[in-house]
Amino acid sequence: MIGTLTGEETRLTILLNETLKMGEIYTTYSDPFFPQYRISVRLMKREKNDVKIDLTGYTPTIDVTVPLYLDILSIHSMETFNNGKIEQLKIHIEEELQKKMSKLIKRTQEEFKGEAFGWSLIARKKFLSRPDYEKFDWMKSYPDMKVNVKVNVFIGTFGEQSKLPDLNEVRD
């Protein structure tokens, strides 16, 4: 065994790996306007990642764009989100996910020295023959590669509450 991943790292691995089936993920993100609150979301992946691998330079690079759709389930700050705030929320979630994914990728390169995202399957197509691919030695080369991650979040629906809760009745 190389190492272990946390539950969150496992979910991020599934988002980055096209060979794994992904269902919906229910999670929370910090509210960019009221940091003491969290925003509940349903995260879905409806499109494939765009993975571009360049093995020609001195330092091979991998550019990954992850398109994600999310529905806002609840906003605990009870803030009304207009178009400007929705865009800020989108950017906030994209940045948070990019940071976490970059940290995970760095961990796989430095600690595990192995790649868990299925990118080697994409890289194989860049070689004319299997011996060329084996000579490249993906497992040896991966820890030194430059990996750029970009997350594109598309916000779908906002959850609706049929009745606003009475704050005197709400308890933590």
TrEMBL record:
<dbReference type="InterPro" id="IPR008844">
    <property type="entry name" value="Spore_GerAC-like"/>
</dbReference>
<dbReference type="InterPro" id="IPR046953">
    <property type="entry name" value="Spore_GerAC-like_C"/>
</dbReference>
<feature type="domain" description="Spore germination GerAC-like C-terminal">
    <location>
        <begin position="1"/>
        <end position="159"/>
    </location>
</feature>
<protein>
    <submittedName>
        <fullName>Spore germination B3/GerAC like protein</fullName>
    </submittedName>
</protein>
<dbReference type="Pfam" id="PF05504">
    <property type="entry name" value="Spore_GerAC"/>
</dbReference>
<dbReference type="InterPro" id="IPR038501">
    <property type="entry name" value="Spore_GerAC_C_sf"/>
</dbReference>
<dbReference type="GO" id="GO:0016020">
    <property type="term" value="C:membrane"/>
</dbReference>
<dbReference type="GO" id="GO:0009847">
    <property type="term" value="P:spore germination"/>
</dbReference>
